[in-house]
């Protein structure tokens, strides 16, 4: 049954507020949900400390410093995708009933994103501050570098969160998302342009990989390209604001795609 008139903006905003509050409440009242969200960042930070050297940047060791950057951006991406890829799939039956009753799918998707973004901000803050306390990044411009590198880490998290929500909106069951999630993680690792360098057509994939742009901000502010002859990463020479803008664009693109996917799936019920 189609609605004879459009929902008002006020009604959609009310849906967003109610859904956001409900989602926060669901997370904090479910130990199995909130515990992984709280433990992800500390556990990954511990792995970062075990795997990286504290003096990598002060000693200008390109290999160790590049590894540290790689781990930070990949860990941030990993948290984002793992937090979000099941969020819509697991509520398909409930969502179908609520949409039929008048729920706005845009408000629903945005509420999911905002709540996950709030947790992602905290997770990235723990990971970044812990890493900064452990190792001195030796930024040439610390006043700008410290906040913008955290923002880069956060935008990597937001972009993969949006990608996860898109997968969750596109697929019907969370079990079906496992293979695409693994593929996305592999892409974020292989095409991060940190550890491995790709030439030819494969190299262009780094331009759509969030971790590559996130690493570019760190590489730019630490000046890694000038540490050793023969070492060069293209995105490390990119302006940090450009890298941040690309990450924001990737986030908006996949969040819009998730909303469009839901609207298409439930267009007969709106």
Q: Using only CA atoms, what is the Rg?
A: 20 Å
Terminal residue distance: 8 Å
Order of helices and strands: HHHHHHHHH
Percent of residues in helices comes to: 55-70%
The class by helix and strand makeup works out as: mainly alpha
Major beta sheet summary: none
Number of helices: 9
Average pLDDT over all residues: 90
- Report the portion of residues in β strands: under 5%
Low-confidence parts, pLDDT < 50 over ≥5 residues? Answer: 1-5
Would you mind describing this structure in some detail?
The chain is mainly alpha-helical and 270 residues long. It has one domain (9-265). Helices cover 68% and strands 0% of the residues. It has 9 helices and no strands. The radius of gyration is 20 Å and the shape is elongated. The termini are close together. Residues 1-5 have low confidence and may be disordered.
Write the layout of secondary structure elements.
Blueprint: H1 9-28, H2 31-51, H3 62-84, H4 92-100, H5 105-134, H6 142-170, H7 178-190, H8 210-222, H9 240-265
Describe the structure in brief.
The chain is mainly alpha-helical. Helix content is 68%, strand content 0%.
Notable characteristics:
mainly alpha, 9 helices, 68% helix, disordered N terminus
């Amino acid at each position: 049954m189609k609605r004879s008139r459009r929902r008002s903006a006020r009604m959609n905003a009310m849906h967003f507020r109610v859904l956001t509050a409900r989602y926060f409440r669901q997370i904090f009242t479910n130990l199995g949900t909130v515990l992984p969200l709280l433990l992800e960042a500390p556990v990954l930070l511990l792995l970062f400390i075990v795997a990286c050297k504290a003096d990598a940047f002060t000693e200008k060791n390109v290999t160790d410093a590049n590894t540290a950057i790689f781990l930070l951006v990949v860990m941030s991406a990993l948290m984002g995708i793992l937090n979000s890829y099941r969020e819509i799939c697991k509520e398909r039956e409930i969502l179908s009933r609520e949409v039929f009753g008048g729920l706005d799918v845009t408000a629903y998707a945005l509420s999911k994103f905002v709540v996950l973004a709030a947790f992602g901000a905290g997770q990235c803050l723990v990971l970044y501050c812990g890493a900064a306390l452990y190792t001195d990044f030796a930024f040439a411009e610390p006043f700008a570098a410290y906040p913008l590198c955290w923002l880069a880490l956060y935008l990597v998290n937001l972009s993969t969160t949006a990608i996860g929500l898109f997968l969750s909106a596109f697929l019907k069951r969370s079990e079906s998302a496992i293979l695409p999630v693994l593929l996305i993680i592999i892409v974020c690792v292989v095409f991060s342009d940190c550890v491995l360098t790709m030439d030819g057509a494969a190299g262009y994939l780094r331009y759509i990989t969030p971790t590559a742009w996130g690493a570019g901000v760190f590489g730019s502010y630490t000046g890694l390209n000038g540490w050793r002859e023969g070492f060069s990463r293209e995105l490390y020479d990119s302006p940090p604001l450009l890298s941040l803008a690309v990450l924001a664009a990737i986030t908006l693109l996949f969040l819009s795609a998730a909303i469009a996917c839901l609207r298409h799936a439930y267009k007969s019920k709106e």
